[in-house]
Each structure stands twice: as C-alpha cells, then as structure tokens.
Amino acid sequence: MDRQVKQDILALVEGSRDAIACSIDENGYPNAKTMFRARNEGLQTFWFSTNTSAIRTGHWQKRPEASIYFVDHEGFHGLMLTGRMQVLTDDEIKASFWNEGDEKYYPLGPTDPDYCILRFTADKGNYYHGLRKHLFSVDEARGW
C-alpha cells in the first residue's frame, strides 16, 4: 500500500468524530449503531463510552466479534475495521474517560453502574476510495 493511501486512512479516522459500530445479536444478525469515538491508538485500539444496559453492550458481552466503520460522504471513502469489542466496567478506566457533561447520561457520575467503556481491538482493515479497495492487517498498520 502506498504512502498516500496510508495517510488518507489515518486522516479519515482522525477526522471522524463518530464511527458506526456493529455487533452480532442472539440470532446471528448484525446490528449497527453510530457511536462517538472517545479516543484511539492508531488503527489498533478504539475507545467508546456507552450505557452498560445498551442492547449492543449485551451483544458484545456474549459475542465480542465486532466491526467499526468510518465514512467520509463528501469524499466517498470509507474504512471498515474488524476485530473484538471488550466491555470495561472498572471505575478507574471509566473515570479516565469521564467528560464534563457526561452526567446528563450517567447521573451517578463516573462510578454509575450504567456507564461503561468499550475497547475495540482491530485485526483487519478494508479501505475503499477511488474505485479501489485496500485490504490490510492491522499488524501491517502499526508502523504507519
């Protein structure tokens, strides 16, 4: 993969506030939801916050297989990453992601039992732009 494509992939992720996160329900069907990207470490690890009681949180607790998708509608390109989603309920981790205003959703603060952090760890990527797709392993992307 050439340098420009790598730069485009990273720019798409860094320029995206949201990602579409997908889980698999109890009947084996995919479920998608737009989620705010709280943080990421390159293309390897992505962090989201959500309700512990959310439907997809339950899906990932049972089946951690997941994908996340970033899209630029104007430039007509997108990136799908596949991997695993982990549900984290440790109070220290939750506090490290806490932002002013989060109490609107989690009134008990960072220790609210209905507040959790999701950590997505990617394995593979599929980037589409300019009528071309670029398949890659996330291990390849570590050096970008």
Which labels suit this protein?
single chain, 144 residues, alpha+beta, Pnp Oxidase, Chain A, 8-stranded antiparallel beta sheet
Q: What can be said about this structure in brief?
A:
The protein has 144 residues and is α+β, with helices and mostly antiparallel strands. It has four helices and eight strands.
Describe the protein.
This protein is α+β, with helices and mostly antiparallel strands and 144 residues long. It has a single domain, classed as Pnp Oxidase, Chain A, CATH 2.30.110.10. 22% of the residues lie in helices and 45% in strands. The protein contains 4 helices and 8 strands. Strands 1, 2, 3, 4, 5, 6, 7 and 8 form an 8-stranded antiparallel beta sheet that branches. The longest helix is centred in the first third of the chain and has 12 residues, at 3-14.
Residue-averaged pLDDT:
95
Q: Would you list the SSEs in sequence order as H and E?
A: HEEEEHEEHEEH
- Give a short account of the largest sheet: 8 strands, antiparallel
Shape: globular
N-end to C-end Cα span = 11 Å
Unreliable spans: none
CATH topology: Pnp Oxidase, Chain A
CATH architecture: Roll
Strand % is over 45%
Q: Level of helix content? A: 10-25%
Gyration radius, rounded: 16 Å
How many strand elements? 8
Number of domains: 1
Helix tally equals 4
Q: What is the name of the CATH class?
A: Mainly Beta
Per CATH, the superfamily is: Electron Transport, Fmn-binding Protein, Chain A
